[in-house]
Every structure is written in structure tokens, then in C-alpha cells.
From TrEMBL:
Lineage start: Bacteria, Pseudomonadati, Myxococcota, Polyangia, Polyangiales
GO CC aspect terms: cytosol
Pfam families per record: Peptidase_M90
Gene Ontology MF terms: aminopeptidase activity; metallopeptidase activity
Keyword Cytoplasm appears in the UniProt entry: no
Keywords (A to Z) from UniProt: Membrane, Transmembrane, Transmembrane helix
Name of this chain's protein: Inner membrane protein
Superkingdom of the organism of origin: Bacteria
InterPro entries tied to this protein: MetalloPept_cat_dom_sf (IPR024079), MtfA_fam (IPR010384), MtfA_N (IPR042252)
Coiled-coil regions listed in the entry: none
Transmembrane regions: 5-25, 31-48
Amino acid sequence: MSDSAIDLGAAIGALLVGAALGLLLGLRFGPPVGIVIALVVAIALYLLKTRRTRRRRALARAPFPASMRAVLEERVEYYQRLSPDERRRFEDEVRFFLDEQTITGPRGAALDERLRVLVAASAVMVVFGRRGFRYPKLRDVVVYDEAFDEEYREGHAKHILGMVHGQGPILFSARALEHGFANTRDGLNVGVHEFAHVLDFDTGQADGVPSFMPWNSVTPWLSVMHDEAQRIERRRSILRGYATTNEAEFFAVATEAFFERPRAMRDKHPELYALLRDTFGQDPASSPTEAPRGDA
């Protein structure tokens, strides 16, 4: 896409948003106020959109860092299964995420590149099938060395491996994050789990129904959640018991299983798998390069 096409698309989008906001405020405060606000909002959105798009294009033209590619090749099985063209797109999305988001240790401490790449890979995995999806820069990501408690105190005896609250920061345990990528068939990946919560919070409240779920999937999804919770209680589901905590945790746990145990989910819970396949725009169980180990 040419820069002129990008500018035109950004201008149209900014004008539409600005016009809508200006109309609403114009009805309350009068047309002159509405027009001024519409112009200010449209210009601000246009500048922000084109600036980010041009920065992304500049980043994509630069060689992908070899050290970051080494982390993906060694630690991220999802990346390993991609075609060469998909790998390049995945790499671009990883570096866009790292460029646009703040990822640190506690109290802003510098974080090892390996952990930063694993955080970004987690974020990209869950939206890779949704081309054009962009995480807004609304949250910081903080990675602790160990598990932590509600007071953010670390230690082997602590019980929280990851956390997302409303519009607050995303928190991870480094040990749990690395475990998720080292053990890819146990249905546990805290990175995928917490970014599923981020997607669920996209509309303001986590209710187990992310905003990009197809509208015609919502009703069957609510039914499947209810039925699957009963199977979990009877220990007839591949989902772990934590999924029955509430609707938000069901979606996050199911998302972990969808990416970590896709063939098992497709074979044992085909309706659940189909709904998640349509939601994420991905079909990991049918990946021709997926190693069949562990999912029989």
C-alpha cells in the first residue's frame, strides 16, 4: 500500500470519528463548538495514525534482529510451524509490539530481551489470525522473576503467575512465562492466558466474550461455556478446573488449550474448537507442519 493510500485512509477514518464526536457535542453545546471539536479530533487522530503507520513501515524495512529471531526459533513453537512468509509477518508484529508497548521488570527495571520477546510473541499469537488488529497503548507490562501475591511480593510460595485488571498493567511471572513456551502440550501458557484477558477487557468489562467474536457465535458460545463447565466438573473435559471460576477465566483457559492442545480440543470438543477457530481466525489443529506429539 502506498503512503498516499495510507494517508487517505487515515484521513477518512479521522474525519468520520471527528464528525461523530463533533455531532454529539454540537447537539449539546451548539454547532460552532461541535465543528471546532470535530476538526481538532480529526487532525489529532490523523497525525497519530500516519505517524504510527510510517514508523511501522520504517521498522519493517530494517533487518529483523538476529538475537530476537534466535529466541523465536528456540523458544516459540508457534513461530517454528509458520511458513517463511508468515514468519516474516510474525517478526514484524513482534517488533511493532515491542516498539509501541512498555515492557519492564518491577519498578521500571530493564528486562532481558528474551523475556521481552516472549511477551510480544504471546501477544501476537492470539491475534495473528486477525490482520489489522492493533493493541492500544493503554497498559504497561511488568515481568517479575517469580510468582507474586496481591501485594506484589515475590517468592516461591506465592501463587499468582499472571494478572490483568481492568485497564491496569499486565503482570507476569518470568518463570511461568518461560514454562509456557518450554512445555507446549500441557495447556498452560500464562502469556496466552493473560493476553486473552486483555482481549476480553477490550470492551471495558471481561465477560468471556471478546469484542471480535463473530456476532453469530456469541449465543452458541454462551451455551458451550455452560455445557463445558459441566463436563469439567465431571472431569470429562481437556480444560482445567480453573475455567469454571467465571466466564472470563473460561475464555482464557480455553484459549490456552486452543493454542497448546488444538488437536485434542478439535477431536474431543469440536463445537468449542470451531467457535474459537472462527473467533481467532486460526486453525492450529490443521496446521500441516504441526508436530503431532502429545495431543493424541
